[in-house]
Design a protein that fits this description.
mainly beta; elongated; about 140 residues; six-stranded antiparallel β-sheet; 8 strands; two-stranded antiparallel sheet; about 40% strand
């Protein structure tokens, strides 16, 4: 995984012969996601009774829950559910749909969830809350 950013001269710097606004160069940062990103998204979740954010991905005819889930024992293998039976929010996130609505989660509990696709990764995320309706 890599990121790049242009490097411009600082305020008041003069560079004879260089057109204004032209970068001096580019800074490139390269990172191994297995050492930086994956440990972050697969760490144990902070216990909460009302909220959860999950990463999902479609693999073949299944939806795989990549991140640890609050309501499964710590260290459980990634939850894998056939696409036809997968919770709607997880399916929508893996399809690239940005939504907000009431859905049933992987436990069958009615939740308020937002979904979003993460471009270039094949992952989708869903943030959900099981808090009681105020009305």
């Amino acid at each position: 995984m890599g990121f790049s950013a242009p490097v411009f001269p600082g305020p008041g710097a003069t560079d004879v012969g260089r057109p204004p606004g032209q970068p001096l160069g580019i800074a490139l940062v390269v990172s191994n996601p297995s050492q930086t990103l994956f440990p972050l998204v697969t760490r144990e979740v902070v216990p909460t009774r009302t909220g959860e954010t999950i990463l999902v991905r479609r693999q073949g005819d299944d939806i795989v829950f990549f991140s640890p889930l609050c309501h499964l024992p710590v260290g459980s293998p990634n939850l894998r559910i056939p696409l036809s039976a997968a919770p709607r929010a997880a399916r929508l996130a893996s399809e690239g749909r940005a939504t907000v609505g009431e859905y049933r989660d992987y436990r069958g509990v009615l939740v308020l969830a937002a979904t979003q696709y993460i471009p270039l990764t094949g992952w989708g995320w869903s943030a959900k809350s099981t808090a009681q309706k105020p009305w």
